[in-house]
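not sure who needs this but someone in the group chat was asking about Monoacylglycerol lipase ABHD2 from Scleropages formosus so here u go. i didnt clean anything up, its just raw.
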Amino acid sequence: QSSSLEHMGTMPAMFDGMKLAAVATVLYIIVRCLNLKSPTAPPEITYQDTPLNHFLLKSCSLLTKEYIPPLLWGKSGHLQTALYGKLGRVSSPHPHGHRKYLPMEDGATATFDLFEPLADHQTGDDVTMVICPGIGNHSEKHYIRTFVDYSQKQGYRCAVLNHLGALPNIELTSPRVFTYGCTWEFGAMVGYIKKAYPQTHLVVVGFSLGGNIVCKFLGENCNNQERVLCCVSVCQGYSALRAQETFLQWDQCRRFYNFLMADNMKRIILSHRGILFGMSSSKMKDADMSRLYTATSLMQIDDNIMRKFHGYSSIKEYYEKESCVHYLHNVDVPLLLVNSADDPLVHQSLLTIPHTLAEKKPNVMFALTLHGGHLGFFEGAVLFPEPLTWMDKVIVQYATTICHWERHKTPCQSEADCSEEKA
């Protein structure tokens, strides 16, 4: 009897030990998943030693200051990405704009939203942000609305491209939706702005897929860089051909994100199935529709649907021709490329592209943050993020710094910039 009592006495102690072990395991998983032990640091900047870059680093303090994400969850690239993707921005504003419709040569109708500035620009100049959102995005997305509202208050006019087919209430007028590197609609919007506002200067901004489009647009033709003060690209992957293999890997849950983005692309395409698959001029067939239903990755959709809009014979050719990596060296305006080291969508191997470019070209600056996820870059004390992100503020601060440089630089500085570019 005494031995049984002793055995019963050890039971609570054993359960307490199991509870402690369970709690310790959960805490360990939380610390690992939330990356709580990761340090905070300023962005790692790659640049050449030029007067402009010195002026940028001196005047654009966000590029040299420590980026501090929210304490409890901000060091997780997955949570930063999810918060951007699903929850949007905190208390997202509703800027008032006017929608413009532009007929394209192939019968498509490009649309963009135009937002006038709400204050005078610091330099007193007329400056327009021409903005290209991420994949399947448009002017009504939370992160775009927040950025536009902030830019308007800093004296910028904003023109935001709505990717062809992305707006649910706008019908297509030709059998084609936006693709990874098609610059036609963005070019039409830029052309409209240049004609409507002959005195304005342009700041080109691209988010994710939009970063690929704007960099490719500028590099396709030197005339596209006329009246452009600078370009900022955030969280793009630079080369779809090199990225496709990484998108099928499970590390950083990249394969899962691929599935989610493919599912979103399916919805966009199927919402326009009548005109995409029903018109006599359409390049799509019933077999393509059946393949679309069974697709589980962006690559399958790109191979069966997207490449055919522009007549590419293979997905390799499509990715090769549509990626900005082959055009970046032609961009001569000041170019800021921003990525996050914990972006679950952009593999680390792709970041050698902007790093190498910034080492070779004096007009390019590459900023790599430790944290931020994919288009996250939230800031905040502990739990709740601030409405404006580091990304929102750094784009505007960089653009404003470039505006001041252009307004106040001496002829000698202009000649030095030209000689550096030619070299």
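also Residues 2-34 form the longest helix (33 residues). if thats useful
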